[in-house]
Amino acid sequence: MDTIFALATAQGKAGVSVIRISGARAWDAGLVFCSNLPTSHRARLRSLTDKNGALIDQALVLTFEDRKSFTGEPVVEFHLHGSTAIVSRMMELLGEVDSLRLAEPGEFTRRALENGKLDLAQVEGLADLIDAETEAQRKQAVRVLAGDLGRTAEVWRTDLIRAASLLEATIDFADEDVPLDVTPEVLELLERSQAAIVKEAEGVKTAERIRTGFEVAIIGAPNVGKSTLLNSIAGRDAAITSEYAGTTRDVIEVKLDLNGLAVTILDTAGLRETEDFVEKIGIDRALQRAETADLRVFLKSFDGEDLPLSPQTGDIEVVGKADISSDRGLMAVSGKTGQGVDDLVSLISNTLLDRSASAGIATRERHRQALIVSMQCLDAAKRGLNLGPDHYDIVAEDMRSAIRALNSLIGHVDVENLLDEIFSSFCLGK
Q1: Is 134 in contact with 355 (CB distance < 8 Å)?
Q2: What is the pLDDT of residues 166-196, one digit of tens each?
Q3: CA angle 42, 47, 50 (to 5 degrees)
Q4: Burial of residue 165, with CB atoms counted within 10 A of its CB: 0-12 exposed, 13-18 middle, 19 or more buried
Q5: 164 or 168, which is more confident
Q6: What is the pLDDT of residues 374-394, one digit of tens each?
Q7: Dihedral of the CA atoms 401, 402, 404, 406 (nearest 10)?
Q8: Which fold has domain 3-114?
Q9: What residue ranges do the domains of the chain occupy?
Q10: Looking at the domain covering 217-356, what would its CATH class be?
Q11: CATH of span 126-203+362-411
């Protein structure tokens, strides 16, 4: 493969900027600017000069041998002073070296995948780690990057390979007396793997919400105090408030970090019958977002009202405008005075934290689909197993299909069409 280079740190002025070179000619390229490269995995201060001997910068230089770097290739890194002028000059000179070319977005990570340093799930974990904004997102991404999903899938694969090999041995010796009935052991391996895969698949939706963020919709009648409550939770005037009903015509979003979880609070239009065309659009949007929200907070008035949407199990019901209304047995809040707002935020946070406990290691819809395919194949294998030895060859193929689905989970097969999409989200130096 070509030897590539790129700025591995953010663009712009900084304390330190890192330029990475990776590929078979990386060390040769490093010697163009530094006549005495340090030994592998050591950092040394070196003077970097151009072909005329003019000093470019004094930098820390690191080298990594083949198979001992992030990409799995020989690597040289220049840790420069973070001046935009120094970085621009160094990038310009590297572009003039015949054996080098500028890396494409995500190309360093893609080489790590192709050279067996990361599996596909770990690549996705790295992308999530770069994008992480909350502690829960960081923890989840670190687990995936560390290879937890790959190791878990390998346990399932090992059990299924064992089960398939037992059946295939039976098929191979079908004409001989084989006293051992392998069916109980095969069935045990299938059921154990399937139970674990089902549990993991059920946790994907929650894990994906940790990665992308939960949505909490505030629902209620017009002029019940939804926008005032949103502003109080956000600590700023995110939504327009007035004494007139129907002020909110669109969905207002406020992003928060609640106990490490990324949460978007939605202020929606007041729900009522209306002839106003624009308000009706806002109400339709409110209903749509409320239906898809992870959690709904029904803000009620003291007098009560009929809404076109009813609370479901797990929703939160509170009474608004607590500063002017009496208690009706529900938590009372006032966005105007702040009464009960902290308690409501704590309740929202704890509710979402409880739901997060069911999250697995698999974090994406792609993962869930691979797990579902594997589950379906195992269902077919169990049905075939009950039909007796005459169907063992079909059962063995069903198990191999389940194994292939697990292989696609970590990128061993059938994922080439996903790679361009995945790596396009990476920055140039990653």
Answers
A1: no
A2: 887 776 555 555 546 778 888 999 999 999 9
A3: 125
A4: middle
A5: 164
A6: 999 999 999 998 888 888 889
A7: 170
A8: Gyrase A; domain 2 (3.30.1360)
A9: 3-114, 126-203+362-411, 217-356
A10: alpha beta
A11: 1.20.120.430
